[in-house]
Write a structure and sequence with these properties.
Blueprint: H1 29-40, E1 47-51, H2 58-71, H3 98-105, E2 111-114, E3 118-119, E4 124-125, H4 131-143, E5 151-156, H5 163-174, E6 180-186, H6 194-198, E7 201-204, H7 210-223, H8 229-240, H9 249-256, H10 261-269, H11 272-282, H12 291-301, H13 307-330, H14 342-349, H15 353-375, H16 380-396
Parallel strand pairs: 1-6, 1-7, 2-5, 5-6
Antiparallel strand pairs: 3-4
Length: 397
């Protein structure tokens, strides 16, 4: 039998511990308390939609709930000792508990994780969760019913289900098995079937602030089995030189990642802060442009095996455009300056509301062109250069 880490996992961020190994949920006490309030009221719903931006702790919350439910014994209604134990005020489960160990080992019989499967023929993760994967729940419910305990299903992510799979999950929500709890993780709940959303209780998670971000990153670094202290220290020293003196590393990461821990870890893994500094520097003299620097940036992101860096660069260009548009339209700078001199560049390139609207329109055009270019497999370097020169053209007008 394959171990839980034998194949790539779609719900794991490179360089970070898997959510099942994350000890503590940080910065989402409201969602945690809302679930505990429902649990303590003895009216626990069978379906929960855990939603919010990517990387803010949705999967960590789902695995925390799963551990809690499977480790908390069922009580008979009206039993003599029902009121002896105080209602729980946390989802945390002791690491010495057997459920904790079984979940980490992937051997907990009361838990089923529904996610994109790994295709051993193509050596890739499949792009969707299909109805065949959902059908495996039938055996899970049948086999785990004999012990009389709870059964928990984590769907990560519900956005990955095709229409047939979503309808199959909907049927389970409409006719839930006894003592069953389904935890659906969604990054974009508006894209799910309305009937699916209506069958679930909502748990909304919010972006993290700088202090919570610092705690979460520290926890991820400590728990990561692949953490390289030397590499991370060197990167921190490199990035620190470009950070505004008034803001710490965590505050800048929180701003650039929109409060996403997962996004911050990706930024750190791919040296995203340095790359964003290079983006700002490239556009510091618009409409003048250092073409050789633009070509170098495009070529670096388009090298073989640099797909992640290309994705990161596209994301950072999109963020820079959004900050240009917002600062121009509102006449106000963002709360946090991500790299030294960024505010000067924003003021110069977007001095008024009209220029802000022009940048917003430019961003829409660039997003559409990149989406089309990827669909038809255009050269990544050409896509980056097209974006850069389109921004130069917008600045000139």
């Amino acid at each position: 039998m394959k171990s839980v880490t034998a194949f790539p996992e779609p719900d794991r961020i490179s360089g970070a511990p898997h959510p099942r190994d994350t000890l503590r949920l940080i910065g989402q006490s409201e969602a945690e308390n809302n679930f505990l309030a429902a649990f303590n009221s003895n009216r626990l719903h069978h379906g929960w939609l855990i939603n919010g931006p990517r990387g803010v702790g949705k999967a960590t919350l789902a695995w925390s709930i799963a551990r809690f439910l499977l480790a908390t014994p069922l009580q008979a209604a009206g039993g003599l000792f029902d009121d002896v134990l105080p209602p729980p005020d946390t989802l945390e489960v002791a690491q010495s508990h057997p459920v904790y160990s079984r979940i980490r080992a992937g051997s907990e019989p009361g838990l089923f994780v529904l996610r994109r499967p790994y295709d051993e023929k193509t050596n890739r993760l499949k792009k969707q969760i299909t109805v065949d994967e959902v059908r495996k729940l039938k055996n899970f419910f049948a086999l785990s019913a004999t012990d009389g305990g709870r059964r928990v299903v984590i769907v990560d992510a519900a956005d990955d289900m095709n229409t047939s799979a979503a309808n199959a999950i909907l049927k389970v929500l409409e006719e839930p098995p006894e003592r069953c709890c389904l935890l659906l993780i969604s990054h974009q709940p508006a894209g799910l079937l309305p009937t699916l959303r209506s069958r679930c209780c909502d748990l909304r998670l919010l972006p993290l602030g700088p202090q919570n971000m610092a705690e979460a990153l520290q926890q991820a670094e400590t728990a990561s089995p692949t953490g390289g202290e030397d590499d991370s220290s060197a990167q921190t020293e490199t990035v620190a030189a470009s950070l505004p003196a008034s803001h710490g590393h965590a505050a800048v990461l929180a701003e650039l990642s929109a409060g996403s821990v997962g996004g911050s870890i990706r930024l750190s893994n791919l040296d995203g802060l340095t790359l964003y500094h290079d983006v700002v520097k490239l556009f510091s003299n618009l409409p003048n442009l250092d073409r050789s620097q633009a070509i170098k940036m495009a070529d670096t992101a388009a090298m073989r095996g640099a797909e992640d860096r290309f994705d990161m660069l596209v994301t950072l260009l999109d963020i820079f455009l959004a900050r240009l548009a917002r600062s121009g339209v509102t006449g106000q700078m963002p709360e946090v300056e991500i790299t030294r001199g960024e505010f000067d560049v924003l003021r110069k390139a977007a001095p008024n509301a009209a220029s802000g609207r022009a940048w917003a329109e430019c961003a829409q055009q660039i997003t559409a062109r990149i989406h089309h270019g990827r669909a038809v497999n255009l050269d990544p370097a050409a896509l980056i250069l097209d974006t850069v020169f389109r921004m130069q053209k917008t600045a000139a007008h």
